[in-house]
Amino acid sequence: MSENQPQQARRSNDLGPTGHQVAANVRRLRALRNLSTTELARRLTEDHGRPTIPGAITRIEHGKRRVDVDDLLALAAAFHVTPSTLLLPPTAQGEVEVTGVGTVPAHDAWRWLDGQWPLSTTRDPETLRRHLLDFHLYSRPEGIPPYHDVDGAVRWLTDFGETPQERAKSTTRPDQMGESPEPD
Q1: Cα dihedral 126/127/132/133 (nearest 10)
Q2: What is the DSSP letter of 46?
Q3: For the ranges 18-22, 30-34, 88-92, 155-159, which has the lowest average pLDDT?
């Protein structure tokens, strides 16, 4: 496309990158659970109060039907997974395109979506402290502690020159990707 041609706008009902990821994950999880579209639709309707027909599952899997937030939560419940599992690729390796954000390391997207760490951080200790406090204040419900002690994470950055997530990426084996190093 040339610079003089306007970009073609995405139609409002077209799926974005996260919508396509949800479609792929519904297909993947349904196959892993050995569920027919009929059985998944029955579970959604009878067990989770989200009336769904088998054809709707097929349309979701082919990217022809959007999944709204109510669908997303009911699907996660039906598959016995977190909503994050439907929104992101099933790996913490490589990169992922996140709607509204762009392409980011998959590891960082998982930590962000699971409420563990801000999606973008800084290497400046004082700015990091402000970002973490803000993230924990608005991303974690009252009574559920943050995954990281803010001052401990800032000390970690100061002492080791990297955030706990950067340290985990450089030292963690693929089978340990879910574990999080704890700052001293």
Answers
A1: 70
A2: I
A3: 155-159
**Lookup result for tokens 């080791």:** 160
- Look at phi and psi of residue 62 and say left if phi exceeds 0, alpha if psi is from -120 to 50, else beta: alpha
| Other beta carbons less than 10 A from residue 169's beta carbon | 16
Please report, as a single letter, which amino acid is at residue 53: I
**Residue 168: both structure tokens together:** 């985990």
Q: Name the residue with tokens 């290497």.
A: 123
Q: How far are the Cα atoms of 23, 60, 97, 157, 162 from residue 27, in angstroms, in the given order?
A: 6, 9, 19, 40, 38
**What tokens does 107 get?**
């590891």
In this predicted model, what pLDDT tens digit does every residue of 52-61 receive, in sequence order? Answer: 999 999 999 9
Are 17 and 97 a contacting pair, CB within 8 Å? yes
How far is residue 36's CA from residue 86's CA, in Å, rounded to a whole number?
Answer: 18
Distance CA 67, CA 108 (A): 24
pLDDT tens column, 3-61 = 444 445 555 668 999 999 999 999 999 999 999 999 999 999 999 999 999 999 999 99
